[in-house]
Amino acid sequence: xxxxFIHRIPIIFITVSxxxxxxxxxxxxxxxxxxxxENLVETSLExxxxxxxxxxxxxxEKEIVDNDLTLSRMxxxxxxxxxxxxxxxxxxxDLNVDQVYFLxxxxxxxxxxxxSYDIRNEWGAFRASFKVRDLDLDQRELNQPHHLHxxxxxxxxxxxxxxxETRNGTRIVxxxxxxxxKIIALADRLLRDLQDRFYVSIVDFENNGVYGQPISRxxxxxxxKIFPSTLYKWILQMVPRNYTELEQGVQNQRRxxxxxxxxxxxxxxxxxxxxxxxxQHDRQLRQxxxxxxxxxSHELKTxxxxxxxxxxxxxxxxxxxxxxxxxxxxxxxxxxxxxxRLIANLLDFANLIRGIEHKHFEKTNIxxxxxxxxxxxxxxxLKEGFELNVEADPEVPDSFADPNAITMAFLNLLDxxxxxxxxxxxxxxxxxxxxxxxxxxxxxQGVGIPEVExxxxxxxxxxxxxxxxxxxxxxxxGLSITKHVAEMHxxxxxxxxxxxxxxxxxxxxxxxxxxxxxxxxxxxxxx
Length: 527
Ligand code: ADP
Fold this sequence. Notes:
The chain is 48% helix and 19% strand. With 527 residues, the chain is of the alpha+beta class. Helix 1 runs antiparallel to helix 5, helix 5 (243-315) runs antiparallel to helix 6 (322-354) and helix 6 crosses helix 10 (478-488). The protein binds adenosine-5'-diphosphate (ADP).
């Protein structure tokens, strides 16, 4: 099925783009989901800490207010004569009170205790803190405890005051000056069970520690709350004892999640890159195969048309001259030989591709094999204007090898030297021995091979990229067969070349004295 608009775009690009988009979206979503979840956890932790702080502040305030109500009950403003007695009872009752003052609403001078030299300091300090006129006492509800919390030089003033009315309608304010240390001890008692899990402290607005050391506000898990109605100049601070681990844990979790997301993205990209490279490789191979088919067809067509043309001339009996006839016969012979060599190459190549190998190893003298092969082609090569130098060492020992395969490899090299030579037509063939190998080299003075192509020319279907090379007939399988022949004997093919100056191909075949000479490992052709 062809989809409109997109059927011209290779499906691989569509697939890759879709995978990329979906991976990116997935990564984005999962990252935000993880961050969102972490924030949720943090928020709920924060909320439970706020609740906890509120709960403990309420407990402390409740205890203070309960204490206030007891204090209130212990005082009767109708009987000034008994005030000293009442105050003594309060002081003895362990109700955190330092002193009790009775005042009128219109004067800062206490009615009780009266000024005396003994209490001059307390009296003075009290008067400096408790300014009746500043407290809007007229507005206060009767018999309800109210609080005055102040910072004085290097200490704190904390008092509960209650406006009461005498029977004859006079309003008296009773002020209980509390003992701040005892109030702190009260807070300590109530906060103790919180201390197992939290660092707890109470500070004033200048961050001076009232109870415990001030806590740094930098942690995410830090909580603070002001006492709302009693000790309203103080702040309760708390942070979980394991806050560094909590922060570290969240940070590690975030890092791990990020790492996993990046890793999975990276793996997707790598897989896509592999798919893309594979696809490119496949495409190149397909292209090479297409070229190969057209090259082979051309290679077959040319000799076939020559054979047909010259045989037609001969059949029609138009050629009277014996020499001409002989020349035509030779052309027909040479062209059909070229065709059969090409077909043999193709069959061999087909076997190579399918992994089938017909090895016919026998005692072979490569020097003689080369001389014999040249007998058939020397004439043709010389006729094309080549200078052919052959140096075959007669001392080269016999070796177990496949003579047909070696001949085919040699003829491929020879044919290439012929094809890829230009003006400088000279071919040198050398057979020698080198350290346990028979070496067969073919040198030309032709176009040469650029450095970048030297490792590719042995690949199946590969043909040189230079247009002048492309114009020369060829199928791109000759050197891959030659390489295969070398490898099936446990040898190799080497190439030395200089662009514009020529090339030397050397076939190295190990000398094997017997069919099962194991000195050379013959690689498995299928691998
Ligand atoms: P073909 O010759 O049919 O193209 P081969 O496998 O024999 O295929 O050679 C592969 C490529 O190697 C050639 O296309 C050519 O570019 C290069 N080549 C082979 N032999 C020579 C040579 N003697 N001189 C220059 N280039 C060569």
